[in-house]
Write a structure and sequence with these properties.
Number of helices: 24
Number of strands: 13
Number of domains: 4
CATH superfamily of the largest domain: Multidrug efflux transporter AcrB transmembrane domain
Mean pLDDT: 85
Strand content: 5-15%
Low-confidence stretches: none
CATH class of the largest domain: Mainly Alpha
Shape: elongated
Radius of gyration: 30 Å
CATH topology of the largest domain: Multidrug efflux transporter AcrB transmembrane fold
Length: about 675
């Protein structure tokens, strides 16, 4: 360690300039990293819906519609004009309306009511279209211009386009709110006006480098773009605080700043390493998710922790020694009161803390397992253009989610029987197939390809179902299972089903399996690090109980508030909260174990509370601020859910560490001493 610190200090100027140069290069590289807003792309390739999509793209030229356009108060000729103009928009590859399924020479009053309900109701027309990937924003913007303010656009692509429009501006808005708040928190936690700049510079450089290295993968998910940079900043800011607080302590004892920095690096290195390692293993568990949005976020957070760790142990010491005189010149009086007498008062709550947590822990554990989840983007706020549009479409035509069934071609009678069976399902409003749209007495070979290509490829027949469920929920997912089961009764495993609700059903199936794997990997990984750090059998259990209690309390709130929760947010936060906030317990416990070697358990806990509660509060308030600002600023339900859970979780973790952890340490003190290698606990005479 001594030779390592000597080299950094000796070459401090080259170190600083190298990091700045790499950060500048990385900032340019971020411009060439694309952001993927399509959740379907992150499903495993072998999931049924992905295989079905691949099969249909290989077999049929016409895709499933992904956009709905409502035109109000129009005649049939006017609706056809709108359809023609929409078809001319770049990125729109197919447009469907009433004229594609019915002969418009037939008077409207004589048409089938079920068919009309799909396309034309009381002079309101619902046109469906398919917009290619990459044209979401430009195509929807042009369609908005064509149809005007009084009409509406909805569907999967409209949601993706809205997400793309808001992503960059919301990230910037969140950063503009967050950075001043963090600076204010850090000013209150230090005695220098310029010291917070050192913290943010060290971690900010690592954040930029992390974002720049994404050029090697070429693409990140929209969740990673929104969450990873801010989360990296909040989680790893502790490392910089540990180092510079130690440096400030040794400056008061040692005249030479260089010597003070060497001592500070040696003193803070174990705490920084332990903190970074637990967070590293917590985040690396996300990379094992089959639903690759979690894996993408986990990989970026793991990189971020590594870069932050390197920046704090190499860049920050060099930067501080180059400009430490600025710290001296910008000293200010402490703004926060002393916490030196807080310990005895906190300990008075040890028995109530144990009783309250004991009573609430089981209901919280059961409650977090019973929460209602959504697996897609959820409903958009009705005060937004998209939310208002989708509400208007649902109000006018009802919920309408298309689903496609592919079956082997050839057996017309079997196909006809399947279509009749599918049409009889409760939530299927209509089915469109060759056998019910064209006379089955006419062989497809007698008709032109234009008339049959929507229904038949060389190997498959395509049946399009229109359902009156939303894209997800119990009814939608139950219908997906019914459609799959019904199709398999007629054609065995040679069928394929696809559509938005089918994709979300597979996302649900995938992330539910991921949940168990990720949570166990997180707990096991962190427990191993804690075992090595404290060389104790019992201490990892105590720390995990403390933080896991906060996680369960946090995740049970939606159940007891009777609200739904985005499952991706739940899965990410159940890992991130544990990985990020266990640092509070590590900081507290390290000091307790050190003081326990020279004083009684009660004295050691009181002294630790007095000295460390403020540092833990600073860390928790920063992480909580990050979460709540993400929640406030993001229109994306997944990002907002992650933010709310993270903000609330950080506060709950702080409360658990301040009140529950001291109580557990006091109750199990003797057992901790016996199960810790070379504990050397002080024994009272």
């Amino acid at each position: 360690m001594s030779s390592f610190t000597d080299k950094i200090i000796k070459h401090k100027k080259p170190v600083v300039w190298i990091f700045i140069l790499v950060a500048l290069i990385s900032s340019v590289a971020t411009l060439f990293v694309s952001v993927n807003h399509n959740m379907m792309d992150y499903l495993p390739d072998d999931s049924p819906s992905m295989e079905a999509v691949d099969l249909m793209e290989e077999s049929f030229d016409e895709p499933v519609e992904n956009t709905q356009i409502l035109i109000q108060d129009v005649s049939v000729p006017e609706a056809l004009d709108y359809k023609q103009n929409i078809a001319a928009v770049e990125g729109v590859t197919s447009v469907t309306w009433l004229d594609d399924t019915a002969d418009l020479k037939t008077p409207i009053a004589m048409m089938d009511d079920d068919l009309l309900d799909q396309y034309y109701s009381e002079k309101d027309a619902l046109i469906t279209a398919f917009i290619e990937e990459g044209y979401e924003v430009s195509a929807t913007d042009e369609i908005y211009e064509l149809i005007g303010e009084d009409n509406a656009v909805g569907g999967e692509v409209a949601e993706t386009a809205e997400s793309q429009r808001m992503a960059s501006s919301e990230s910037m808005y969140a950063a503009m709110l967050l950075v001043p708040i963090i600076i204010i928190i850090l000013i209150f936690s230090t005695n220098s006006w310029v010291e917070p700049v050192f913290f943010l510079t060290a971690i900010g450089v690592s954040v930029v480098i992390n974002l720049g290295t994404n050029i090697f993968t070429g693409e990140i998910s929209f969740v990673t773009q929104s969450v990873a940079p801010i989360l990296q900043l909040a989680v790893s800011l502790d490392y910089a605080i540990f180092l510079l607080h130690s440096f400030a302590e040794y400056r008061r004892r040692v005249a030479d700043p260089t010597e003070a920095m060497k001592l500070a690096m040696k003193r803070s290195f174990p705490a920084i390493t332990a903190s970074a390692t637990t967070t590293f293993f917590g985040f690396i568990a996300l990379t094992f998710m089959n639903f690759e949005i979690g894996a993408d976020l986990g990989f970026n957070l793991v990189k971020g922790i590594v870069f932050s760790y390197i920046s704090v142990i190499i860049f920050l010491p060099a930067l501080t020694l180059m400009f430490y005189k600025w710290i001296d010149k910008t000293q200010h009086r402490p703004f926060m009161p002393s916490f030196k007498k807080l310990g005895p008062n906190v300990l008075k709550f040890r028995i109530p803390a144990l009783i309250i947590v004991g009573l609430l822990l089981v209901p919280a554990f059961l409650g977090q397992g019973q929460t209602s989840f959504i697996y897609g983007m959820g409903d958009q706020p009705e005060d937004s253009r998209l939310g208002g549009d989708e509400a208007l479409i649902d109000e006018t035509f009802g919920q309408n989610t298309p689903m496609v069934v592919l079956v082997p071609r050839g057996d017309v009678a079997n196909e006809e029987a399947l279509v009749e069976e599918l049409e009889s399902l409760n939530d299927v409003s209509s089915a469109i197939a060759y056998v019910n749209m064209v006379d089955t007495a006419i062989p497809p070979g007698y008709l032109g390809e234009e008339q049959t290509s929507a229904f038949y490829s060389e190997e498959f027949a395509r049946i399009t179902l229109y359902t009156n469920t939303g894209s997800e929920g119990d009814r939608a997912f139950s219908l997906v299972e019914e459609v799959r089961d019904t199709s398999e009764q007629f054609y065995g495993e040679e069928t394929a089903v696809l559509g938005e609700s089918v994709t979300l059903f597979d996302i649900k199936d995938t992330v539910e399996r991921d949940n168990t794997v990720v949570n166990w990997l997180t707990v096991i990984g962190i427990a191993m690090v804690l075992f090595v750090t404290f060389r104790s059998l019992l201490m990892p259990v105590i720390l995990l109980i403390t933080i896991q209690s906060a996680v369960w309390f946090n995740l049970s709130v939606p159940y007891f508030m009777d609200s739904t929760l985005v499952f991706v947010g739940y899965l990410v936060v159940s890992t991130v909260q544990l990985a990020a906030t266990v640092d509070y317990g590590i900081l507290f416990t390290e000091n307790y174990m050190k003081y326990r070697q020279s004083m009684s358990a009660r004295e050691a806990i009181v002294k630790t509370i007095n000295e460390k509660i403020f540092a833990i509060f600073v860390s928790a308030s920063i992480l909580s601020s990050v979460g709540f600002i993400l929640w406030i600023t993001s229109s994306n339900p997944i990002v907002g859910s992650v933010g709310l859970l993270l903000g609330r979780g950080a506060l709950l973790a702080f409360i658990m560490v301040v009140f529950l952890l001291p109580a557990l340490l006091l109750v199990f003190d003797k057992l901790i001493g016996k199960t810790t290698w070379k504990s050397n606990f002080h024994k009272e005479k």
